[in-house]
Amino acid sequence: MPCVHLKQLIQLCEEHQLKVGGSDVVHFVCEQCGQQEVCPDVMIDEYDARSGERASADASEANADSA
């Protein structure tokens, strides 16, 4: 469970539609609390949901194009 500071960071990203990405796992470390969060679950869940929607849309377009 992330500390209050990391929760604020996650909330800031959501409010301003900021996305964190990279080719590897992203680690957030709060030096004030000594806590670490790996790719916050909120952002990963949102990414997974959008990726699933995008894959479905792409498949629908491909089927429409081949018809």
Order of helices and strands: HEEH
Mean pLDDT: 75
Q: How is the quaternary structure best described?
A: single chain
The percentage helix is 55-70%
Q: Which class best fits the helix and strand makeup?
A: mainly alpha
Percentage beta strand: 5-15%
Estimate the global geometry from the Cα principal axes: elongated
Q: What is the rounded Rg? A: 16 Å
Note poorly predicted spans.
Answer: none
Distance between the termini: 49 Å
Q: Can you count the helices?
A: 2
Query: Major beta sheet, specifics?
Result: 2 strands, antiparallel
Care to count the β-strands?
A: 2
Strand sequence of the main sheet, in spatial order? Answer: 1-2
What distinguishing features does this structure have?
two-stranded antiparallel ribbon, elongated
Walk me through what this model shows.
The protein has 67 residues and is mainly α. The chain has two helices and two strands, in the order αββα. The chain has a domain at 43-67. Helices cover 57% and strands 12% of the residues. The protein has a two-stranded antiparallel sheet with strand order 1-2.
